[in-house]
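Board notes (copied after class):
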Amino acid sequence: MVNAPFIQPKIIFLLPIALCLLCSITSLFFRRGLIARALISLLTSISSVLMLAIAVMCSLFGVRVYFKINTGLWGAAGTVPWPLSAITFSIDGLSAVFVLMLGFVGLASSVYSLSYLRRFREDYDLRSFSVNYSLSLMLMYLVLTVRDLFWFLIFWELMTLTSQFLVSFEHRRRAAVTAGLKYFTLTKVLAELMIIGGVTMMVLGSPSPVTEFREVAASLNLLFLSNPTVAMVAVSLFFTGLMVKASLTPLHVWLPDAYLEAPSNASALLSGAMTKVSVYMMFRLFLFFNPPNLLWGAILSLIGAVTLTYGTMMALKQTKSKSLLAYHSVGQLGYVVLGLGACVTLLSMNPPNPALATVAALASLYHALNHAIFKSLLFLNAGSVEYVTGTKDLNELGGLGRLMPVTSLTALIASFSIAGIPPFNGFVSKWLIYSSTMTVHGYLPVFGFLALFISSVTTASFVKFYTSIFGKPSRKLFRNAREVPASMLAGQVLLASLCVLLGVFPGIAWILLKPALTSAGLSTVNLGVGLTAFSIPSVAVNYPTLIAATLFPTAGIIYAILSSKEAHSIKGWACGALRSPQALSPPAKSYYEVFEEEFRGFYRFGEVLYDYVVVKGSQALHVILRGTQHLTESPSPMSALTAFILTALLLLYLILKLLGAMLP
C-alpha cells in the first residue's frame, strides 16, 4: 500500500482539497438541473470519502501526516511577524477524530444533496450553493489540519464567510437573509476577540513571534510564568471566539435562526461538523496549549451545564421541526463542553484524578462524534419531511410513519440516540459523562445530576418531535406524501447505521478515539474496554452489546405479535360532537404545557435576556452603523476627520524624531 503513488498519505490528504476546489470551479458552468446536482454530490462525496480514508489511516494504522507547503508569498521568517512563505499541515490523533466526523457528515449530506437540491431548481441558481458548500467543506478540513495559528485564523474567517452564504441561500426570503446576517455579524465581531487573543499568544510569550502550534504552546506557557494576567486574558479572548461558533450560551443566539433557514443538507453540515471545529480547538487550547487549570475547569463545566440546560429547555417548547433541532444542537454541545471541563478539573485537582480525567475526555470526544452523526441525521430527516410536505410546522404535520417508513425508522433511531436510550450511541457517551462527574467530590456531581435530568427533558422533546411528524393524525391532509428518493434515503440510512454500530459495539469508538487521548497526554492503561463493553475500575461497568442482544429480539417479537393481529380503528369521542381524527389530533404546541407553566420563570428569564442582549443590542449596533455610514458619506465631516488624523500622525512622527535626536 505504501509504495503505490496515488495512495500515499500526503496525496490522500491533498485530494479532498483539490476535489472541493474543482467542484467550486466547474459548478460555475451549471446553474441548475441534474448535471449541476450530480456534480456537487459526486465531487464532495468523493472528497468526504478521502477524508474518512486519511482519518482512518491515522487513527487505526498510526500514519502521521506532517509537511509544509510553500506559498510563494512574501515574508520569510524573521522579516515580518507572521511568515507567509509556508503553511504547515499535520494530522495527529486529535485531528483524525474530527476529520472523521467531517467525513461522515460530509458524505451523508453530499449524497443526500443529489435529490434534495431538486426542490430549488425552479427558484434558485445552484452555482451559489455549490461554490459555498464545497468551499465550506474544504475550509473545515483545512482548519482541522493546519498547524499554524496564523493560517488557522485565516481559514477560520473564510469558513465563516462561505457558511454565511449557505445560511442565506434562499435569498428571496427575508428571514433567510436576516439569519445569515445575524450569523455573520455575531461570529465576525467575536472573531476579532479571538484574533486579539491569538496574536497575544503568538507575540508576547517568546522573544520572537511564533505561529506553529507547538511553538505557540511553549510561548503561552512562558507567558503564564512571566505575566499570568495577560496570558489569562489572551486565553479568555480566544475562547470567547470559539464559544460563539460552538453556540455556547449566551453566545448561541445566531444558531436557531441560521439552522432554521438554511437548506437541510447545509444545516446537517453546519450542526454536525462546523460546531465541532470549535470543540477541536477547545481541546487544543485547554489540553495542548494551556496547562490544566482548576479555574478553567470550573468555567468550562459551568458553561457546559448552563448550555445543555438552556438549549434543551428551549427546544422543548419549539413548534417547528428545525427550530427544535437547532436548540438541541445548543444543548448537546453543552454535554460535550461539560465533559471537557470535567477533564480539565480532574487533572487540576489536588491530588489529580488522571483515570477519571481520561474518561471525561473520552466522554466529550465520544459525544461529539455521536452528536455529529445523530444530529446530522435528524436534520436530514426534517429536510425529507419538508421535501415531501412543504412545511416544518409540527402543529400541521402527522401521520407520515406509514407513508415514509424508512425516514420514520431512521428518525426513530436518531431520536433514541440523542435521548440516550440504550443500546444506541448517545447512551454510551452520556453514561461516560455521568460516570466521570457523579463519582467525585466537589461541584462536578451537581452538573452530572443536572445533565441526567436534562436528558429526560431531551427524551420528552423527541417524543414530541417524532409523534408530531410520524405518529398522531395530521391536522392537514398530505395526500401526495410519499417516501423520498433513494439518494436522500442513502444519506439517512448511513448515519442511522452508525448510530446503532457505535452504540452496540462501543469498542469501535474506543479504537478511533484512543489516539486522540494519547496525543493529549492522557493515560488509557486503567480503562477496561473491549468491543462489547466498557469498564471503569471502581466506578461502573456497561455492556451495550448485551443490552442490544436483549432488547432488539424482544422488540422484534412484540412487533411481530402486534402486526399479526387485525387492527381495529376506534373513533375518538368528542362529547357527542362530530369531529374528524385530524380535528381531534393535539397540536404540537399543546405538548408539555403544564411543564412549561411550572418553569415559566425560566422561560421568562430567557425571553428578557434575549430581548435585552439581542434585540436591543442589534438596534444599538444598527444606530451606530447608520451613524458611521452618514459620517463617511458626508464630505465636510470626513474632510475634517481626515485632516485631524493626518495632523495627529504628523505630530506623532515629529515627536518620535525629536525623541530620537535627544536620546544618546
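Comment from the instructor: The longest strand covers residues 65-70. The radius of gyration is 26 Å.
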